[in-house]
Every structure is written in structure tokens, then in C-alpha cells.
TrEMBL record:
Membrane topology: Multi-pass membrane protein
Primary location recorded for the protein, binned into one broad class: membrane
Transmembrane spans: 26-45, 65-86, 143-165, 185-206, 242-261, 273-293, 300-318, 324-345
Stretches assigned to coiled coil: none
Taxon lineage: Bacteria, Pseudomonadati, Bacteroidota, Chitinophagia, Chitinophagales
Entry GO terms, CC: plasma membrane
Record key words, sorted: Cell membrane, Membrane, Transmembrane, Transmembrane helix
The protein, known as: Flippase-like domain-containing protein
Subcellular location field: Cell membrane
Family matches, as InterPro entries: L-PG_synthase/AglD
Length: 348
């Protein structure tokens, strides 16, 4: 009787736990994200409204599509498929260690992953969208490969961000947060924190396989981490290739920003522009965000950093929104259409 009672209580506990987890996800995805989006949008609106000569700034934004510098805007737009093509090639290199996979299929799976990522914190849903293109027995192993690609991109972002911190110390101290300039001490703490995270990320990236094997010595983790055996197929050449293409993608992404901002008449020098964008990426990599609020957070960070070089707040924000639409929203819409043709579970 006692055992039966305990079993029933455990079942009730598990059911309540699942219900709480489900409710928590609903709150996070459908309440917290939109609230954050509204709050940031109002803040950005107030910043744009305070810009001097706002009608002229609007005119410059419109002229970006057909003015003398419009080629920069269109080149930035054309770089979108290149950006995701590099990410698809990284995925193609990794998945072919597991099963035969074409580049076109890799491109489709990356876009499909992006469509699911739009509704999850820090775009974690991207994993699920990619692995549905794999054979059922390989899908869990695909999670480990997706992790390799993501961590490689993160490592490049952190390293470039650190270089930007070192090269632009004077400019960074001019950045204002809530009306206050960043202190030298705070900047120093941030710099050492980034350096620490680079060390941890690099160790995890290059020793992911060893870490998985060490954790498998823990009995209750052994079966759960069995899918990580796919990492045995990766050699140092593969890891360095992932870093190389991650860096190329970083450059393309940064170039999109610089080109579009130049077309929108943001007075941003090319060299400072590249490293300023590296700082924006660094902050975005560290700050947790929801896809719906991502554009707002990106806009606020861009205004704070690029505002050191240009007072054209409207153009800075417009460029950030345009890049967000091009690189996230548009590919996600295409990916959602591609997902319609995928059968997640095979018919028997």
C-alpha cells in the first residue's frame, strides 16, 4: 500500500512538473518576449524622435534605394545568400562525416533551422530544424554536430570582439549607457571577462570530444551522451575548417552592416565600422535575447556604439532593422516553407 501510494504521488509530481515546464515555456515565448519587444521599441522610438533634422534623415533613408550610393545597399542585400551559404557549407562539412549529404540539402536544413529558431530564446530551436533532414537514427548525433558549428561561430565572435575592445578603447569610453560613459575599470573587467570566456569556449570547442568521453564515466550520463560518439569522426582539420568558414561568415555579416549604413549616410569609416560591428556582435553574443526582441536589442546596442561616430540615429536603426530582416526574417520565412515538405516521422 505504501509503495503504491508513493508511485501515485510520483506520477502526480511528474505530471505537475511537466505542466509547470509547459506553462513556463508559454510565458517565456508568448509573454516575456513580446513585452521586452514593446519596451525596447518605445525606447528606440524616443531616441529616434530626439534626433535633430528628422525629416532630412527620413529622406536619406529613402534615397538609399536609388541614390548615388544605392549600389552599396543592393550589394549588402545580395550578400545575404552568401552569409547563409557559408553557414550551410559548415553544416555540409560536418554532416558528411555522418551520412551522405548534398550542399543544397544542407542549405535547406540551415534555413529550416532558422525558421524554428525565431520562436525560441537565443534561437535554440535551430538545432531541431536542422536535424529533421537527417536520417532518424542520426538525428541525435546531428545535435552534437550542430553544437560544433555554433560554438565555432561563437569563438570567432568572441575573438574578434576582444580585438575590437583592444583597438577601440578610446572610442568605447565615449559610449553612453543611460547617459553615463563607460569607466576604464568597467571596460577592463569586461575585457578580462571576454578573455576568460574565449579560453573556456576554445577549450570546449577543441576538446568537446574528450569532455563527452569524460562525462560518459558518470553512469546516468553514459546513455544520454552516447550520440556524442559522432565527434570521433572529426579531426583537427575539420575543426580548423569550421573556424575558417566561421570567420568568413563573420566578415560577410560585418560587411553587410557597413555597406548598408554607408548607403544610409551613416558617417562610419570602413575600418572603425568593421570593429564597431565586432563589438555589437560581441554584446549580442553575451546578452540573452528572444527573436522577437532581438532587433530591438541590436538597435539599442548599435545606436550606443555607432553613435560615437554618427548622430544619425534613424539611419543606424534603419540599417540594423534591414540587416535583421534580410538575415533572419526573410530566410526564416523561406525555411518555414521548406519545412512543409519534410516528414519528421517515417510512415510504416
Amino acid at each position: 500500500m505504501i509503495l503504491e501510494k508513493l508511485c501515485k504521488e510520483q506520477i502526480i509530481f511528474d505530471q505537475n512538473k511537466q505542466k509547470l515546464n509547459r506553462n513556463f515555456k508559454i510565458i517565456v515565448n508568448y509573454f516575456l518576449g513580446p513585452v521586452l519587444f514593446v519596451w525596447i521599441s518605445v525606447s528606440l522610438y524616443n531616441q529616434v524622435k530626439q534626433q535633430p533634422d528628422l525629416p532630412n534623415a527620413w529622406l536619406q533613408v529613402k534615397q538609399a534605394f536609388y541614390g548615388a550610393n544605392s549600389w552599396m545597399l543592393w550589394l549588402g542585400i545580395l550578400l545575404m545568400p552568401v552569409n547563409w551559404g557559408l553557414e550551410a557549407y559548415k553544416w555540409y562539412l560536418l554532416v558528411n562525416k555522418l551520412q551522405p549529404f548534398s550542399f543544397s540539402k544542407a542549405y535547406e536544413s540551415v534555413l529550416s533551422g532558422l525558421s524554428l529558431a525565431m520562436n525560441t530564446p537565443n534561437r535554440v530551436g535551430e538545432y531541431g530544424g536542422r536535424i529533421v533532414y537527417l536520417q532518424p537514427q542520426n538525428r541525435l548525433k546531428g545535435v552534437a554536430l550542430t553544437l560544433v558549428s555554433s560554438v565555432g561561430q561563437l569563438l570567432i565572435t568572441l575573438v574578434c570582439g576582444l580585438v575590437a575592445l583592444l583597438l577601440m578603447r578610446k572610442q568605447i569610453q565615449l559610449v553612453q549607457l543611460d547617459g553615463n560613459h563607460l569607466s576604464g575599470i568597467l571596460l577592463q573587467v569586461f575585457l578580462w571577462s571576454v578573455l576568460f570566456f574565449i579560453g573556456i569556449t576554445a577549450l570546449f570547442f577543441f576538446r568537446m570530444q574528450l569532455l563527452a568521453k569524460m562525462l560518459q564515466w558518470i553512469p546516468w550520463l553514459k546513455e544520454k551522451l552516447a550520440f556524442a560518439t559522432v565527434l570521433d569522426y572529426l579531426n583537427n582539420k575539420t575543426y580548423y575548417s569550421i573556424l575558417f568558414y566561421s570567420f568568413l561568415r563573420f566578415v560577410v555579416f560585418a560587411l553587410q552592416y557597413v555597406l548598408i549604413w554607408q548607403a544610409l549616410r551613416v558617417n562610419l569609416p570602413w575600418w572603425e565600422g568593421f570593429w564597431s560591428i565586432a563589438l555589437i556582435f560581441l554584446v549580442m553574443a553575451i546578452v540573452p535575447s528572444f527573436a522577437i526582441a532581438d532587433v530591438g536589442i541590436r538597435g539599442k546596442v548599435a545606436i550606443a556604439i555607432i553613435g560615437v561616430f554618427s548622430a544619425n540615429t534613424l539611419a543606424i536603426l534603419a540599417g540594423s532593422v534591414l540587416v535583421w530582416l534580410l538575415n533572419l526574417v526573410l530566410p526564416a520565412l523561406v525555411g518555414s516553407l521548406l519545412l512543409l515538405s519534410i516528414k519528421i516521422f517515417k510512415e510504416r
